[in-house]
Amino acid sequence: MTDETHLWMVPYADLMSTLVILFLAMFAMTYSKGSLQYQELMAKIESNMASGAQVAPARERLEETEVAERIQQAMKGLALRDFGVTVDARYVRLRLPAPVLFRQGSDALGPQAAPVLSALGRLFATVKSPILVEGYTDDVPVAGGRFRSNWELSAARALSVVRFMSDHSGIAAQRFYVRGYAQYRPIASDATEEGRRLNRRIEISLIRGLQKEGR
Q: In CATH terms, is domain 65-207 a member of 2.30.30.520?
């Protein structure tokens, strides 16, 4: 039997590889599309199938989804409640209720903030994606203190997070973006105490697909 008789094995092997990838994709569809497991599995499939100039971006997206999974585990390890980690085409986003990091009406980081932000800093330092920190409040007006509005309070809280992570995690300052939205992007109704509690939050995100600068 000559070597030429084995040539059929080359396209057959390619076909089998394609079928394996197809079955993995079908298995992935059993997950919710919003779940971290789904996003990570799809990123692995994309990374395995990438070629040429697409290899590096696919690997970066895989690293970002893996960081999201590690963030979720780290927050659970700190016994935090009401946090959320989501992944979409633009962001790997962590949502933290404001009381985890701040006292009411203050932009000074509370005692629980250091372990949370230190854990995040270690994880964010493993990738090069820019980091967006956003502050949000409920619709209760600021009463007294040094802030004249919720705009100022939400922006100051986001800036406090950036200062800590930049100073303690070795992340280059140019990687950070800061935004304050006050009460104008609620995720729940401000008509109830529970809704106001959910709206008082900090969101820390890896921005996907932007030019990477610094470390």
A: no
